[in-house]
Amino acid sequence: MNKDVESIKVFIFSIEVGTLAYDKTRAISYFQYNNDYLASGLYKNIFPFILQRIGQTQVFREFQEYTFRGIPPVFADSLPDDFGNQIFNRWVKEKGIDKKELSPILQLAYVSNRGMGALEYFPGKKLPKATKINLNVIVDVLKQVLDVKLDQKEVELNDLGLLNIFKIGTSAGGARPKVIVSEHKKKGTLLAGDLEYNDSYNHYLVKLGMGTDGYSRELVEYGYYQLACESGLHMMLSKMIDGKHFATLRYDRIDGEKKHVLTATGISGYNFQNPEVSSYENVFEIAHNLNLPSADMDALYRRMVFNYVFHNTDDHLKNHSFIYEKESDRWRIAPSYDINFALNALAKWSDAPHSLSLNGKRNNITKSDLLLLAKSYSIKRPKKIIEEICSSIPRWKDIALNLDIPKQVYQSIADEFKDLDRI
Ligand SMILES: Nc1ncnc2c1ncn2[C@@H]1O[C@H](COP(=O)(O)OP(=O)(O)OP(=O)(O)O)[C@@H](O)[C@H]1O
Ligand SMILES: [Mg+2]
Question: Is the CB of 299 under 6 A from ligand 1?
Answer without folding.
Answer: no
